[in-house]
Design goal:
Layout: H1 2-18, H2 23-34, H3 40-52, H4 59-70, H5 76-85, H6 93-104, H7 110-122, H8 128-135, H9 141-153, H10 155-158, H11 165-178, H12 182-195, H13 201-212, H14 219-232, H15 244-253
Helix pairs in contact: 2-3, 5-7, 7-9, 9-12, 11-12, 11-13, 12-13, 12-14, 13-14
Length: 255
C-alpha cells in the first residue's frame, strides 16, 4: 500500500493546493488545523500545505492561531509549528512559560519533551540552568543523548559566553559515571574532546583524564579517552587491549 498511499496523498495535496484560491475552502482548511477532534496527522499535513503555499498570512488565520496558542489545551505540535513560522506576528511568551513548566513538572511524554526542547532551542529560549534542571529528572538515555547534542550544537550561545561550561562538565561527568551505556559514554567523550579546541582546553583534558582513571570506566570508553588524551597531551596513556570481535560487538551495541 505504501506507494499507492503516497501517490494518493499527492493527489489529495494537489487538489487542496488547487482549491486554496477559494476563500470558503481556505477557511474550512483553517478550521481543520484548529479542530482538536480531527486527526492530528491530517491537521499537521494541512498546516504544512498552508505554510508551503504561503496562504497563512491573513489576519483571520493569525487571529485563529493566536486564540489557539492562548488556549491551555490543544496540540503542542500545532502550536509550536505556528510559532516557529509566525513568531514575528504572534504573542507566544506565555506559552513558552507554560511549556517550560510542563517540562520541569514531567507533564509531557518523552516524544513531546524532545520536540518541545527542540522548539525552545530554535527560539533561543533556554539557558543551561533550565536544561540541567530538566535533565536532573530524566532517566531515558536516548533523551539525554538528544539533549547533549542540542547543547553541543548551541555551546557558543549557552556555554562559552559566561563560563557555564563548568556546570556542563559536571553534568557530563555525572552522566558518564551514572549510566553504563556505551552510546552515552562515547557521546560524553566526544563532547569533551570538542572543548579541547576551545579556551576550555585544560578543563576538558583534566576531566577526560579523571574519567580515564575511574574504576567504572569501561575499556571501550577508556580507549576512546586515551585516543583524545594522546592527541593533545604530553603524557602517554595506555590503550586497553580490545580484540576485533569485541569491537564488532561494541559497535553493534551502539544506536
Amino acid at each position: 500500500c505504501r506507494d499507492f498511499c503516497y501517490f494518493e496523498q499527492l493527489g489529495y495535496e494537489k487538489a487542496i493546493v488547487e482549491s486554496l484560491t477559494n476563500k470558503g475552502t481556505l477557511n474550512r482548511l483553517f478550521s481543520v488545523i484548529f479542530n482538536e477532534e480531527d486527526n492530528l496527522r491530517w491537521r499537521l499535513k494541512v498546516l504544512d500545505i498552508i505554510l508551503k503555499n504561503d496562504v497563512g498570512n491573513s489576519d483571520y488565520f493569525l487571529n485563529k492561531a493566536q486564540e489557539f496558542i492562548k488556549n491551555q489545551s490543544g496540540s503542542h505540535q500545532i502550536k509550536q509549528r505556528l510559532i516557529l513560522n509566525f513568531k514575528d506576528r504572534l504573542d507566544y511568551f506565555d506559552y513558552l512559560e507554560e511549556i517550560k513548566n510542563k517540562l520541569l513538572n514531567a507533564d509531557l511524554s518523552l516524544s513531546e519533551a524532545e520536540e518541545s526542547l527542540s522548539f525552545l532551542f530554535l527560539l533561543d529560549a533556554v539557558d543551561l540552568d533550565f536544561v540541567l534542571n530538566f535533565l536532573s529528572q530524566v532517566n531515558d538515555p536516548s533523551l539525554i543523548k538528544s539533549i547533549i547534542l542540542k547543547v553541543n550544537n548551541n555551546k557558543e550561545k549557552i556555554l562559552l559566553k559566561d563560563n557555564s561550561y563548568l556546570k556542563y562538565f559536571n553534568f557530563l561527568q555525572e552522566t558518564f559515571l551514572n549510566f553504563n551505556n556505551y552510546d552515552l559514554r562515547s557521546l560524553v567523550v566526544f563532547s569533551l574532546s570538542d572543548f579541547v579546541l576551545e579556551e576550555t582546553r585544560e578543563d576538558s583534558l583534566k576531566l577526560l583524564e579523571k574519567l580515564y582513571l575511574q574504576e567504572e570506566c569501561d575499556k571501550f570508553s577508556k580507549f576512546l579517552i586515551a585516543n583524545v588524551l594522546n592527541s593533545y597531551s604530553e603524557k602517554e596513556y595506555v590503550y586497553p587491549e580490545i580484540d576485533k570481535l569485541e569491537w564488532n560487538n561494541y559497535y553493534n551495541s551502539l544506536n
